[in-house]
């Protein structure tokens, strides 16, 4: 290579942001390394972006990543574990998702079946489970000794904390059954997800030619009201992908975050040329304006291989780890951002 073009190549590389490593790229929330590796290997052995996304998230489901993905975690008020998941194809803008899925372990697999084997986008609850069984997914009990133990301790502690408000008897001291209270408080408080029992997997996969898939899998919020569906299976909230731009995925207080469609907002900002880190920060700041104490983080990546993340600083959560796999290393690398 002539000296001039070598120097200009060096100059070009030095001008690139630090969070850049070209394509392909796999990035996911938290330190779920095996999920990253599985997605990367799937992509590099000829699998599609959807295969990589599905297998990466499925890895976390079977490992029960941090107890908050897959079976046997986050029991609801009745002690049952229910699952939310989604997958989005940024080439076709197709989405498949499941919410409040019961008795089926492979939530991301069912989400993909919704996308590929129906004309719908989101199936929920008991009917989603029946759909899954009909599609060949095994029905199993999602309860484990650990989730049973968590549930029993919660019951013995007067069902604290819980997600009820404006009901009687007082949800701060009782297990119900609840009835609507006579007076409705005007400014209702937010029940935060336990930041020590969090960790939805949100993943973005971008192949060599810039095709993007994004998705999520989670068992949601611990001690949720039965029937609750969080942000993870909602397109634009839990994740979003557009192969013209990039992808984003979110984790945290889903009940709050889903009102702001942070993944959609981040992708739209990147569409206008905003770099991934700033796009993620803006999505977090938008929520923070209204809910300063929400717990949450967003990851973002664009089709040139740039990536970034942001999180909201709250007590006990000042930095957010995420995994990145690209051609710059032979293993997935854990990165972290300081929360804002
Ligand atoms: C939910 N967003 O169901 C998920 C939970 C989560 O970190 O991501 N926790 O609200």
Automatic annotation (TrEMBL):
EC number(s) from the headed UniProt entry: 3.5.1.26
Gene Ontology BP terms: proteolysis
PANTHER family on file: L-ASPARAGINASE, N(4)-(BETA-N-ACETYLGLUCOSAMINYL)-L-ASPARAGINASE
Similarity comment: Belongs to the Ntn-hydrolase family.
Origin: domain of life: Eukaryota
Site entry (Cleavage), positions: 199-200
Keyword Zinc-finger: no
Residues annotated for substrate binding in this entry: 228-231, 251-254
Name of the protein described by the UniProt record: N(4)-(Beta-N-acetylglucosaminyl)-L-asparaginase
Function per UniProt: Cleaves the GlcNAc-Asn bond which joins oligosaccharides to the peptide of asparagine-linked glycoproteins.
